[in-house]
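Two entries, shown back to back:
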Amino acid sequence: MYWKYHIESGDLVGFKYEGRIVHGTVRGWINPDQYEDKSFAEVEPADFDLLIQSGDKEVTVNLADIETNVKEEDRKTDLPLMSEEFRLTGGI
């Protein structure tokens, strides 16, 4: 069911974090199997959480907080960018 939201591991996402938009790499969905038997109409984006990595930091983000999504194949790199961590933590 969760696949209907079209976000997959490896995608670059922009999301709300501490009052601003930051970026990270999707590492996976958290407990998507609990919705396998539900129809699209029976769930809301806020029912889902994603594990997102930015640099060496991992955070859990609700799907409702995702603002932008760039597919893995459209990214300029396959690895999380160092700049993603700086955007997530505010830099040094």
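entry 2 starts here
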Amino acid sequence: MSISQHDNSYNTEAKTKWREFVYSLATPDNTSTLTNDQGIYQYKWMELVGDNANTFQQLLDTNKIQEHQLIGIDRREDNINNCKQLFPNAQFHNIEWNDFCMTYPNNDIGIIILDSFNAAYGKDFKTILNNTMTLALRQKEYIGECLVVINVDGSKTYRGYAHHKGMSIRDVLKTNIENVFKYSDSYSLRSIQINTNSMYEYKQYNNSANMLTCGILL
């Protein structure tokens, strides 16, 4: 099963502000192991990459991470080949997200960014979320923490969730995530409660869908 992702440069002002929100989720004030006292990321950063991994350049420009700590995933082989030339010290994998989560052999990823156009409901979302959290829990076991950032099409999620009964778009995402965790074999997932006030909502363009982000620090 594939994950939909952006094919553009991520250079809109809205996306830049979204990236700043993501950076704010892992700081010396709210994590104990993911950063040092100066806010430098201590472990690897994994995410879906769009064209030419433009987000990696934005990330490197923060001076919080080194190129060799970056892991990019994309099922488009031509893009992965381009990315390898642009960032030769980073890791790039031409593989489905789910497959990578289930086969990655190491325990060195501190931050996982699942940034897609997918809706947060149904069998596909459950599969993606379970596989992502399986990887994240394994990283936490060795590192002590792992941050997972889930960015979804909030408008599509709201339209597709037939039983929202007047709930807000944020409540729908909270419910859908917690419903997946409810049946997990891991107690640490079953006990997670999502805070709707800490979610981030934005539109990439004025006429585009509402995107909705939830950060989970394990």
